[in-house]
Amino acid sequence: MAFRSVFDVGALRNEFDIAGISLQFIPQVWKHVRQNPSSNLDEVPSLPTAAYLILRTKFKAMTSSLSSAADSKDRLTTKLLIRLQNGSLVEAVVMRYDTRLGKYAGKPRPGGQRSTLCISSQVGCKMACKFCATGTMGFKNNLSCGEIIEQLVHAFQFSDIRNIVFMGMGEPLNNYTAVVEAIKIMTGPPFQLSPRRITVSTVGIIHCINKFHDDLPGINLAVSLHASDQEIRCQIMPAARAFPLPRLMESLQNYQKKSHQKIFIEYIMLHGVNDLEQHAHQLGKLLQTLEVVVNLIPFNPIGSSSSFKTSTKDDVKRFQQVLRGTYSIRTTVRQQMGEDIAGACGQLVVDVSRPMSAGSVGLLSDIEDLHM
Ligand code: SF4
After folding, report:
1. How far apart are CA 4 and CA 198, in angstroms?
2. Is the separation of the CB atoms in 122 and 141 below 8 Å?
3. Rg of the chain in Å (alpha carbons)
């Protein structure tokens, strides 16, 4: 029988419940594992005797192991390749920022180094977006809640993680229950991450967006829109056929009415496909009644087989100017980090043949900057 992760909260709660053990001991187990991921569960201090028996026979501190870690040349990005218990590999990317290097209101920013972890929720992905490396893998399996949290525990060995973005492999809302459970663990003891610093990115799974705020109040929602026209959307994101744009926009309106939170809109810039001035006006009109931050993402060519081309800098700038100038929409352009280690957006695909000792990086806009 495969052992469960101690972070598979449903299974652990169930076992403790049956044995009459207080659930208050669970964060104590997690705290020990977070600090000592390679330790034996017998070493968790001060648990009831019955808890040790359960932990020893049914659970493991960590069910996954770190297969490799590749630093980019500038050491700002580290790509972690993690082997799951079933042998599958997933990737998580640590991105570091030093706030002191940025200027805020003309002065160096307060704070210091902080990191964002880009986390995976599935092995592969069903959505098959045409511009995405992960989409080319097809879907293999959902990650359990424990396997999602274990990525965070591995990442803590490299950096003090303050922000989480569910923008790695997989469509998080297609693995809704595990993602919700994992986020509840992240925001509780011992991790205590602020909900404001966690962002879930989706292609727009409408029935999940409709319950997202009730299940995860305070968590940020990012929508990979990528086109303001249903036909273009379906061309580049075949799964969008199941989520017609008018229904998606209605669901975002309802989400914002309930949550009063701004929505992050991701828009990959594909030369000649969705980056023309008319597309910018169409997008501006579509988003005019929402409070959004648009993040324009210059396309990362995935090998020579990709039929898409990167938009020119001038096209990106013009697009941004239309959204800002005509529609007063806050619009940022994502910097790319980690391209040399295939750790940039749309590049998370397990490729063990790719050299893991790395070269130089650039990265995502810091999600904290977006929140200011
Ligand atoms: S962009 Fe996201 S949703 Fe689309 S195939 Fe890639 S991982 Fe899946």
Report:
1. 25
2. yes
3. 21
Cβ atoms of residues 43 and 32 within 8 Å:
yes
Residue 174 near ligand 1, beta carbon < 6 Å: no
Q: Could you tell me the two tokens for 324?
A: 């800002």
Q: Is residue 253 within 8 Å of 293, Cβ to Cβ?
A: no
User: In one letter, which amino acid is 306?
Assistant: S
What's the pLDDT score for residue 372? 33
**174 alpha carbon to ligand 1 midpoint, in Å?**
11
Point out the catalytic residue in the list 15, 91, 181, 266. Answer: 91
Cα–Cα separations (whole angstroms), residue 78 to 61, 154, 229: 23, 12, 36
Q: For all residues of the chain together, what is the average pLDDT?
A: 88
pLDDT interval class at 82 (50, 70, 90): very high
Give the length of the chain: 372
Tell me: the pLDDT tens digits for 286-314?
A: 999 999 999 999 887 765 457 899 999 99
Cα separation, 318 vs 105, whole angstroms: 26
Range 104-126 average pLDDT: 78
Looking at residue 307, its pLDDT comes to 84
d(CA 130, ligand 1 centre) in Å:
9
Q: At what angle do helices 26-35 and 145-156 cross, to 10 degrees?
A: 40
Q: What is the pLDDT of residue 371?
A: 38
Q: How far is the CA of 348 from the centre of ligand 1 (A)?
A: 9
**Ligand 1: does its nearest atom lie under 6 Å from the Cβ of 205?**
no
Is any ligand 1 atom within 6 A of the Cβ of residue 132? yes
